[in-house]
Amino acid sequence: PGLGADSVQGEAAFVEARRHGCHRWVTAAIERVDFHAPIHLGDIVNLYATTTRMGTKSVTIKVDVEAERLEDGSTVSVTAATLVMVAIGPDGTPIPYASPPTIHIDA
């Protein structure tokens, strides 16, 4: 069984998108996924998410995944993906992500 790198890439994209606005965000598209190497049991996995394009209601985010090998500490590129995330309002329709927050976190 695999780690589910595609699942954690979606989570990393959400974290990056959330920096642009306090809203619910959904994955509108996965533009590209490149698999380079497997993740092995015991590897330390690092994800790096970067915004590459900003629209009005959406952001495009590149997520790179690296694995630090347990055996020798080397780092290898595991996968890379490009996702489009869209901010949505309480009614589920796309909204400008620069609009006032639509979700609130109680401290």
Structural class: mainly beta
Beta fraction of the residues?
35-45%
Number of strands: 4
Question: What is the string of helix and strand elements?
Answer: HEEEE
Tell me the number of helical segments per DSSP (H or I, 4 or more residues long).
1
Radius of gyration: 16 Å
Shape assignment: elongated
Distance between the termini: 37 Å
Strand order in space, largest sheet: 1-4-3-2
How would you characterize this protein structure?
This protein is mainly β and 107 residues long. Helix content is 13%, strand content 45%. The chain contains 1 helix and 4 strands. The chain has one helix spanning 5-18, and strands at 24-35, 44-54, 58-68, 75-88. The protein has a 4-stranded antiparallel β-sheet, with helices on one face. A hairpin with a 6-residue loop joins strand 3 and strand 4. The mean pLDDT is 92.
